[in-house]
Amino acid sequence: MQDRPLVLPHVFHRAEQLFGHKEIVTATAGAEQRTTIAEWAGRVRRLATALDRLGISADGRVATFSWNHAAHLELYMAAPCTGRVLHTLNIRLFPEQLSYIVNHAEDEIIFVDRSLLPLLWPLTDKMDTVKHFVVNDDGADADIPDDPRILDYERLLAESEPYQGRFVVEDENSAAAMCYTSGTTGNPKGVVYSHRSSVLHSLISLTADGVALSERDVVMPIVPMFHANAWGLPYGCLLAGSSMVFPGPNMTPRAILELLAKHRVTVTGGVPTIWMGALPMLEQFDLSALRTVLCGGSAAPKSLSEAFREKLGIPMLHAWGMTETSPIATMSTPRSQHDPLSEDERADVRARQGQAVPLVELRLVDPETGDELPWDDQHTGEIQAAGPWIAKEYYRGEGGGAQFTEDGWLRTGDVAAADRYGFVRLVDRTKDLVKSGGEWISSVDLENEIMSHPKIAEAAVIAIPHERWVERPIACVVVKPGETLTSAEVLDYLRPRVAKWWLPDAVEFIEEVPKTSVGKFSKKTLRDKFAGYKLPGAEG
Ligand code: ADP
């Protein structure tokens, strides 16, 4: 057989040649920008020569600081197709983390949206390697400083000739893109995706038991393009020929729902926080075209998925992964063995993280003995992962390899059980488990039970040190607007639903669960907030 490299130029040329007529829509401030894949491809070709003209090294890091839009997709291709490395910066990182990441990756150029320039510009003097800041004017009225390092995106493209012929990347193992973990512990660490890993991972979103992307789909990635390449959806769409809708800067639930309805979107994806926000107004929109709502990044609570099923007729498609796994590792598509189950039992299956997708291997390992554990739904251990789009190390060896086993598997830091079909049920992150009297309490399970209460909007469970039991759980609860609730009512609700010793020692009502830069519950912030918390009845 021919030894053809698996490289992103193939994805680009396929889209350009076969799907030029397909549409890409971007929502901008108060308007909409429409383009076709043909026009987009022409701009990718101009951008390619622009990168040469600006003197970006042959394998230089090309950073983006952007919302989801068509211009971001131009960079998704122009950087890797010219042998450079796309580095998507998370726009919600703290300033110190951002400048740390830019310097660590040695970014040479940053493409930034005008609306985001005020966040980035104050840090630029700490960014030692960046030679150019290219501003994509998204209609925001943010000031553009008068500085020779600043260039205008449209002008740059207009002044550049289109690249002629086919893009060539010979080594499929060369770097195509990179992303830093959001750094919930320690400094953020870089994960480098190769051309090969990106192409193989994109194919997964086209499989029938996956998202099943097809040419007929209209796909709106809500998950940010700076978060693990928007779960691979943009490359998947280009490979399949799907039309795309990008939400731009307005990420309010109403704006998102309006776009889904207006463009008859068939497939979308985002973290649970997005869907929780959208839930109260779902019925106000015609979402009849929607067939798949991909949900991951945190556990998709059963109550949330069921609410979607009741209101839209489609439950969520739950997926699990992490930056280090590109990120798709499992998907919870129902299988034939689930057909005989009741609707409620099927909902339990959907709340699981699912089965490993093709080419990904998983194992459960006892963290203390290192022994592999059986898939009997009883034993819980750390999930370890291996496969062609699973990281084997961090960029520049950060972290000293502690997260990789001697035989080359990734330690995910997630604790899970799996049934005999390999349907994973994530119990917790190693660091979020509550260790009570030598037994583990799953904060995720407790949260899911609490969040099924009709008056509760959000809930997060954290461990509080306890003299006798080592740790005990407390529940931090956000009540829905206009509702009232007492601690006793929450505990009464939980009593028939969880083991007695799982009952939280206290219920604290809070305004909002703090979120991380990618919209997940930030347990770390909550733990800091409740540091020194005295449990009711605790001595001292
Ligand atoms: P960070 O580790 O910095 O939060 P990631 O976005 O890579 O950044 O997060 C990956 C982690 O998110 C996983 O290890 C897991 O703990 C959690 N996660 C992702 N998807 C799910 C899911 N479907 N259910 C539960 N947890 C999930």
Summarize the structure.
The chain is α/β, with parallel strands linked by helices and 540 residues long. It folds into two domains: 8-359, ANL, N-terminal domain (Rossmann fold, 3-Layer(aba) Sandwich), CATH 3.40.50; 433-529, GMP Synthetase, Chain A, domain 3 (2-Layer Sandwich), CATH 3.30.300.30.
Write the layout of secondary structure elements.
Elements (H helix, E strand, L loop, with lengths): L7 H11 L4 E6 L2 E6 H17 L7 E5 L4 H12 L3 E4 L6 H11 L1 E7 L3 H4 L11 E5 L13 E3 H6 L16 E6 L9 E5 H10 L13 E4 L11 H8 L2 E4 L6 H10 L4 E4 L1 H7 L13 E4 L6 H11 L3 E6 L6 E4 L11 H9 L3 E2 L4 E5 L15 E6 L23 E9 L5 E6 L4 E3 L2 E3 L1 H9 L4 E11 L3 E10 L7 H8 L11 E4 L13 H7 L11
Parallel strand pairs: 1-11, 3-4, 3-5, 4-8, 5-6, 6-7, 10-11, 10-12, 12-13, 13-14, 24-25
Antiparallel strand pairs: 1-2, 8-9, 14-15, 15-16, 17-18, 18-19, 19-20, 21-22, 23-24
Bound molecules: adenosine-5'-diphosphate (ADP).
The site of adenosine-5'-diphosphate has 21 residues, from strand 14, strand 19 and strand 20.
